[in-house]
Amino acid sequence: MMYEIVLKILRGINRRMNRPDWKDLRLTQPISDFFGYDRGSQSIYRYYIDRFIESQCDKIKGKVLEVGDSMYMDLYKDKISDAMIIHYKELRGRNSFIGDLTHMDSLPRATFDCFICTQTYNFIYDFRAAIEGSKYVLKPGGYLVATVSGIQQISKYDEARWGDYWRFTKESCERTFSDIFGKDQIEICSYGNVLSSIAALEGLSSSEITNEELNFNDPSYPLILGVLARKGND
Asked: Looking at the DSSP assignment, which residues form a beta bridge with residue 97?
């Protein structure tokens, strides 16, 4: 509790001492390169990811798989009968297994009612194979609930661990996921606008611009793309 209080105070001090000057964009260095987490508890990207997951919460039920941790499964655990976590390299915690989405022989076949796969395909070189693997783990009628980045800086953390390869657009998502799941089985949502794009690239937190500004949607500036894909019964 004391740690959280101190962290909140430090973030507030950081924001006050390094206020963004919206009148001067001629800067070659961002205000922060930690995605805003040194300035607030939530990044602008995470704000949009949370919005998309919430919009699809009715799909998160039954036997559910999530990448890396159980952050979103924990929010809807009352509707989940069995929760599993897939890790790429290091096994951490119970109800987890190591699997590579690009290699189906490492994955359980037709096992899950829902697969929550946030911010993953950007960091997989063969992302098409990873999407095919995501379909492979789903039961017929199961849902993939995924997000990918559009406008975003390189993640140094991910680049060092497994690579940071791709940025997506709504059109690239529609074509790729349609090829694998079928055109009638997907929905793509875009989140962001020019102001939230500038704020995100400057490394501001979601608390530094208003919800009204965050929620204005301009498809020409996609920070986050949400993907809902259903596995058919064929």
From this structure: 86
